[in-house]
Amino acid sequence: MSKLKEFVGAPKEVDIKGKKLTLYPLKVDDLKMFKENLSEEEQMKLSVETVRKSLNDPEVTEEEIKNMSMDYFIILMDEISKLNGLEDERIRKIKERVVQARVK
């Protein structure tokens, strides 16, 4: 077994308004999702992809994620951020941009 095997993140079950979901940690390769200076459209696509990868459920579609109510989406993004240790100013800005893009 590799010395790095112990650093692979474990999934976490979260409760979002009474619904249990298992979230999977993002991998180093997924860091591209957190680039700065993205257009609102690019950010929205990457946010949907972040949710899809975190849920790791082949039955969840992009359309379902895009049609989530905003309050659930924000809570889910917060949980994904916490799981991945990404609770910083940049994540807050990403969430703000997603909210702005969805409001338009």
Q: Please provide the count of β strands.
A: 2
Proportion of residues in β-strands: 5-15%
Strand/helix succession: EEHHHH
Low-confidence stretches: none
**Mind telling me the C-alpha Rg?**
14 Å
C-alpha geometry: globular
Number of helical regions: 4
Helix content: 40-55%
Helical/strand content category: mainly alpha
Major sheet characteristics: 2 strands, antiparallel
Question: Key features?
Answer:
104 residues, mainly alpha, two-stranded antiparallel ribbon, 4 helices, 48% helix, globular
Q: In summary, what is this structure?
A:
With 104 residues, the protein is mostly helical. Helix content is 48%, strand content 10%.
Description of the structure:
With 104 residues, the chain is mostly helical. It has helices at 40-55, 62-66, 70-83, 89-103; strands at residues 12-16, 19-23. A hairpin with a 2-residue loop joins β1 (12-16) and β2 (19-23). The protein is globular, with a radius of gyration of 14 Å. 14% of the residues are buried.
Task: Write the topology of this structure.
Blueprint: E1 12-16, E2 19-23, H1 40-55, H2 62-66, H3 70-83, H4 89-103
Antiparallel strand pairs: 1-2
